[in-house]
Structures are given as structure tokens and as C-alpha cells.
Amino acid sequence: MRKNNELQIEIDDVYGCPGHCPGCVLSSIEKKSIQADMNINTFNQTIGSLEKFILKLSDLEKINITYGIGDHFLMNDSYLKYTYQKGSELIKKFNDFYPNDYHQSNGIFYSSSMIGKYETIMQKVHFLKSLEDTHQTPIYILAVLDPKHLYHKKFSEVYHKNIIDSQKILKKIDLSINLSIEAIHKITPEELFMFAIDNHFHEVTINWTPTEDNFIYSYMHNHILTNWLINFFEISVKTQKEKNITIGTSFVPVIMRTIDNLRCKEPEIQTLHESVDFNFYDLSYKSIQIDHLGQFFPKYEAIGDIGHGSRFGFNPIGNVHTDDIFDSFQNKSKYHQYEMMKNVSFKQCQQCDFQKYCANSGFHVYNKIISNQIKNKKNILITEKIKSNEKTGCWHPAKNLFEYFEKITTNK
């Protein structure tokens, strides 16, 4: 089994964003914010709590801190400097506590829409580069690509230039896209892949995160989403063979790691409960998300990151103002293990060969979101689409994706 040796921390301090990606997890109200949503007291308490947390973990080699979910280029320079310095101090303490050869890759990620005047975006990028040069902790930008801006007659030139020139300066820009019905129709897998290749990106993070607010825009027929994802993967494999150019994808390693972890433990692990219990520490303790109120919860991976947060109907594990993170994970682990199993206990899940795979990844969160839509019965079109997907044996692409990639691992 591949052990998870990386601690991933997401601090959701900013929700404001000028973008309008239909597949975004942020609501229209959240996006209107023009200042940091996490107050400075909660931010400082978060960093302090994380310092204690990392000292109680074990078997770690890497750490990454992501400041999400909104556009951090809306923040002033003093805010960016403060959050960077605090994050850099935390990473350096981690490096001292876990000495190894991976420190040069430990870094801080800032999410950004890359929407705005060219001069404004470049000023932010140059400022972050100066911070990196001074403190020597790598900075990465999570640039959210919105296809409608990329191809918009009025905005495309500036938007394209913002992304490309930022890449030239920092050389550490990760491209991401929020999949929705609109996004899939606006950009093909080939177009996205070639955009990444032509502009020297090394990673494309593909997010599919349906929520209560965006469900009507993001939920689609399984074959459409599955084919788009598999086409992107097959293009990457072909390009690697023909041109020796590699583009990393977010969802493929998750699926392959899940398959590997569970297959190599069979038949030792027979039951769903045994598999969840066995994997819980690596899955949950080492990937943590903290919202603007200081509430923390485990963050899982599926087609992008998707956590046990309140926006998906879960209770938080605790709050940094009142609870020790490590102790809370231990005390509340049974609740979250129960949720992982409960949300793969629907009729079609019980008959599925990949039930354990969904439970031990973020795919079980999709089931909770979709089951809530069924209970609400707000939209006839959504209900019909869910029923149509259910006939394929799964409410979402998990079954199709696991079947496809398991064949690949078996044929290796």
C-alpha cells in the first residue's frame, strides 16, 4: 500500500471572486465579498492550532498550504504578505520537525481567478515573487480557467495574457477548471490539454463539485462527464509517448491510488467497515480543510477536492477557537467513518463492485449531495437526470472511471 506522506492544508480565508464559473462551489452571495472572510483573530488561531497539529502527526515528508477558495488577488499587499509569512513560518517549523530531502517542494498556494486589468494582475504576481525571493518558501498560483473568458471577444486577450505572463514570472502556476455543463461545451479535452502544453503548465486540476447552489449547472449525464475525463487522460498518455511531454492531472492519481490501496489489501480487508477504518488516518488526518469561521474537517479527493464541510451537509470535526485539531479528529473519527459508509449504502452502491473505492475517496460525498437533491425534489429535470444515471448503476461517473482505470492497472 502507498502510504500518504504529505500533509495538505486548505485554509478558506477568501470567498470573494469576480468570476462566474457555473461549476464553482461558491455561492453568488459569497463571491460578492470584497475583503478577507476569515478575520485576523481566526487566522492567527488557525496557524497556532496547525503548529500543534503537525507535531502530533507521524510519517510525514511534505506539507502544502492552500489559501482558498476565492480570488486572493482581490486582497491588498499587506494581507498577502501577512498570510504568506505566517504560512512560510509554519512550513519552516514543519521542515525542522521532519528533516528530509523534500523541503524544496513544500509551498504555499493562492487561488485566483486571474480576472482583472493586466497591470493589476502583474503587480500582484511580482509582489508575490518578491516575497518568495526574500523568504525562500515556494509560491504557487492556482489559476482557475474559465473557458467563456478564454474565448470571449472582449476579454480573451487580456485574460489569456494574465495567465501566461504570470506563468513566466512565477513559473509555478497550476491550471484548474471547474467542470460544468457550460464548461464542457465551451472547451474540449483537446483544447484544454493543448492550452496547458502550449503555455508550459505541468499540472491541470480538474474539479467537479456539484452543490445545492450549482447543481442544475454542474450535474450531467454520466457518459458525458466520463467521456470528457477519459478523453483528457488518453490525450495526456498519447502526448507523453509521442512527445515525451507530461501533464499531471488531479483525478487520475486519486483513482489509481484508491485502486492500488484497496486491491493490495484484499483479501485481508473483507468488509466496508474494515477498509474505512484501515485507511481513515491516511485519508483524513493528512488532508484538512478549515473554513472562514475556524471550523475544520477532513478533505477528500475525487474529481478535485471535496470535503466533509457544512456546504455539503456534514458537521465539522471542531473549531480552532475551542478544540485541539488532533484530539478532535480522534474523538470524532467514528462520526466521519459512519458518514463515509452511510453514503455508499444506497441500493445501487450495495450492488456495486466499487463500493469500498467510493467510501475511501471523495466520491462518497457526491452521493450525499445527490441524495439530498432527490429528497428536495426541487427540479423535474434534475430528478430525471438522476434517475437516468441511476440506470447505469451509479449516480455519478465513479463506477465508469473505476472500471476503466482498474482495467489499465490489471493490464499493466
Describe the structure in your own words.
- There is one protein chain.
- The protein is of the alpha/beta class and 412 residues long.
- It has two domains: 6-251, Alpha-Beta Barrel (TIM Barrel); 257-284 and 325-411, no CATH class.
- It is built from 18 helices and eleven strands.
- Strands 1, 2, 3, 4, 5, 6, 7, 8, 9, 10 and 11 form an eleven-stranded mixed β-sheet that branches.
- A hairpin with a 1-residue loop joins β9 and β10 (304-307).
- α2 (40-56) packs parallel to α3, α8 runs parallel beside α10 (222-243) and α12 (272-285) runs antiparallel to α13.
- The chain is globular, with a radius of gyration of 21 Å.
Helix-strand layout with pairing:
Layout: E1 6-14, H1 28-31, H2 40-56, E2 62-69, H3 77-97, E3 107-112, H4 118-135, E4 139-144, H5 147-150, H6 156-170, E5 173-178, H7 181-186, H8 189-198, E6 203-207, H9 215-218, H10 222-243, E7 248-249, H11 251-263, H12 272-285, E8 287-290, E9 295-302, E10 304-307, E11 318-319, H13 325-342, H14 347-350, H15 355-359, H16 363-376, H17 380-390, H18 398-411
Parallel strand pairs: 1-2, 1-8, 2-3, 3-4, 4-5, 5-6, 6-7
Antiparallel strand pairs: 8-9, 9-10, 9-11
Helix pairs in contact: 2-3, 3-4, 4-6, 8-10, 11-18, 12-13
